[in-house]
């Protein structure tokens, strides 16, 4: 195995790793990026629902196991840009209180070792980098921001505007979802987005979605000091004799093993794979896994309590780009329930082929088509709490994921409450809980919002990373994907991962 030496080795190019590369590339330091996937192909299938939703074209065909040893295919993909290639690009800040200790009906959501104020400047930078479009001061739970959104919001289509107005009339506070989409309503030449109906969950054929590949990796590929190796899966990290520094990164490419050396190594493989990599790198000095003296590596895995609701009424819904509105009025609870409940947002427009992916085989296409053409489709998120028993382990080199639902009371209330509100505003004569996501049937493979498996904190006994996301145990090893979250909040995680990667990048650039 030939050996090469770099200043930084970044492993993974998703929301964390891609954003970190953007921050470090201008330093001129020698950077090697190792990514197990390739560039996601631009092809007609990008926007084909059958391919994407029924055939899982962009998911890995790798198998993971649940706690009973049953195999499943995780809903995750390995590409340059990671899962931002298929995300809905809803780019939210956590709420200010999410950074402190919060009492939930199901337990306690622990405090972060940094405050919202400390992360705020990096949220602003991340919003600029990913060109977020939104409008401040409509969402009453939104934390104070030092600057306006870089661009104005993506406007609602008529049916959604109607619902927005109905909700406002009832005293609720709907607002525009902050979105990373390169759409200009005045249709300037620079507007790449065609405002299509295959965005949320799909790759963007015209590269108009702001993602870690398009906005961070590609623009830095021409830099002399940056080298990207795709289809390079990191297998383990080898420390020096003291166990205090990672000396070598071992990866496989084209069936061969390679070794490279870096002064600083940053893992950003996604919360499940980063934990798996640390566990796979156990050695004499780190018998339970690298940087795992706390025993916390792989533990406290979170993925949100998620549900979807289809509100079907006699009124057709011809909306094409639907993911424009959200409601946070119940984020912290309501008059009858004093604990957090969660967040409501529109989904991308559901069509018959998406419904068919979950519907029983006998459901006729015509019925599904009728349902989809009249439904308004919602995504509900509740916070799940860190539980050390919800964890990633490795057995015979295979990922095992153990997860038991928790903190469901507030989430269940929100699901019911939102159904009642939709009926109240006559937006739903029938409410159909989307079976794939309906709480009782949430499949384990829905790991899109994975986080928490290497949490950061002050105490090396209870956390894996310090405040700067450096491992407590290994002095030149960092983790910058969603693993660092001590709690999951109830909004989508990517902007927080991106902002944190910029914060850690600033620290690394000075080192
Ligand atoms: C369908 C869907 C919709 C979503 N919508 C939203 C949304 O609207 N808003 C939002 O905020 N979030 C959304 N998310 C979640 C969001 O995509 C993730 O939170 C985010 O991408 C996580 O970033 P990360 O850096 O932790 O991991 P990832 O983005 O998954 O990146 C991990 C990277 O590491 C690489 N990798 C893994 N293992 C190795 C290895 N051993 N060696 C080398 N490389 C490796 C992977 O290929 C990948 O490139 C969505 C997710 C899905 C699946
Ligand atoms: S709506 Fe715009 S950003 Fe989304 S997939 Fe379509 S063209 Fe791309």
Automatic annotation (TrEMBL):
GO terms for molecular function: flavin adenine dinucleotide binding; oxidoreductase activity, acting on CH-OH group of donors. It comes from the Bacteria. Its cofactor is FAD. FAD binds at residue 234. Keywords: FAD, Flavoprotein, Oxidoreductase, Plasmid. Residues 444-501 form the Glucose-methanol-choline oxidoreductase C-terminal domain. InterPro entries: FAD/NAD-bd_sf (IPR036188), GMC_OxRdtase (IPR012132), GMC_OxRdtase_N (IPR000172), GMC_OxRtase_C (IPR007867). Residues 7-304 form the Glucose-methanol-choline oxidoreductase N-terminal domain. SUPFAM superfamilies: FAD/NAD(P)-binding domain. Belongs to the GMC oxidoreductase family. PANTHER family: LONG-CHAIN-ALCOHOL OXIDASE (PTHR46056). This is Dehydrogenase. It comes from Fulvitalea axinellae.
């Amino acid at each position: 195995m030939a050996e090469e030496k770099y200043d930084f080795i970044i492993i993974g190019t998703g929301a964390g790793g891609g954003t970190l590369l953007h921050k470090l590339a201008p330093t001129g330091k020698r950077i090697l990026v190792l990514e197990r996937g390739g560039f996601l192909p631009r092809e007609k299938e990008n926007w084909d629902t059958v391919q994407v939703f029924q055939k899982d074209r962009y998911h890995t065909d790798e198998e993971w196991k649940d706690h009973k040893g049953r195999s499943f295919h995780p809903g995750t993909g390995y590409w340059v840009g990671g899962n931002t290639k298929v995300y809905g690009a809803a780019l939210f800040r956590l709420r200010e209180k999410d950074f402190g200790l919060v009492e939930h009906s199901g337990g306690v959501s622990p405090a972060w070792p940094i405050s919202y104020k400390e992360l705020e400047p990096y949220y602003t930078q991340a919003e600029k980098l990913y060109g977020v479009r939104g409008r401040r001061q409509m969402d009453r739970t939104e934390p104070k921001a030092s600057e306006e959104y870089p661009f104005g919001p993506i406007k609602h289509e008529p049916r959604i505007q109607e619902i927005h107005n109905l909700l406002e009339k009832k005293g609720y506070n709907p607002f525009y979802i902050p979105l990373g989409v390169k759409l200009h309503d005045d249709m300037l030449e620079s507007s790449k987005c065609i405002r299509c109906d295959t965005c949320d969950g799909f790759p963007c054929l015209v590269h108009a979605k702001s993602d870690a590949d398009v906005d961070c990796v590609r623009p830095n590929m021409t830099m002399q000091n940056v080298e990207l190796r795709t289809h390079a899966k990191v297998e383990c990290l080898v420390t020096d004799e003291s166990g205090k520094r990672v000396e070598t990164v071992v990866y496989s490419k084209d069936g061969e093993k390679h070794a490279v050396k870096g002064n600083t190594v940053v893992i950003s493989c996604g919360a499940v794979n980063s934990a798996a990599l640390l566990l796979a790198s156990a050695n004499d000095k780190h018998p339970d896994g690298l940087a795992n003296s706390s025993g916390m590596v792989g533990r406290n895995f979170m993925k949100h309590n998620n549900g979807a609701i289809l509100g079907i009424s006699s009124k057709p819904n011809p909306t094409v780009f639907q993911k424009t509105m959200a409601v946070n009025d119940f984020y912290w609870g309501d008059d009858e329930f004093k604990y957090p409940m969660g967040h409501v947002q529109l989904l991308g427009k559901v069509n018959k082929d998406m419904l068919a992916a979950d519907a029983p085989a006998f459901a006729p296409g015509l019925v599904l088509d009728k349902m989809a053409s009249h439904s308004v489709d919602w995504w509900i998120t509740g916070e799940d709490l860190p539980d050390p028993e919800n964890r990633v382990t490795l057995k015979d080199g295979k990922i095992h994921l153990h997860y038991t639902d928790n903190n469901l009371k507030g989430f269940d209330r929100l699901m019911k409450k939102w159904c009642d509100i939709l009926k109240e505003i006559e937006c739903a004569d029938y409410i159909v809980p989307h079976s794939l996501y309906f709480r009782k049937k949430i499949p384990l493979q829905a790991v899109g919002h994975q986080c928490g498996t290497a949490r950061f904190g002050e105490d090396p006994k209870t956390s894996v990373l310090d405040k700067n996301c450096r491992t407590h145990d290994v002095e030149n090893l960092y983790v910058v994907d969603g693993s660092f979250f001590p709690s999951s909040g109830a909004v989508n995680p990517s902007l927080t991962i991106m902002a944190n990667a910029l914060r850690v990048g600033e620290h690394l650039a000075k080192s």
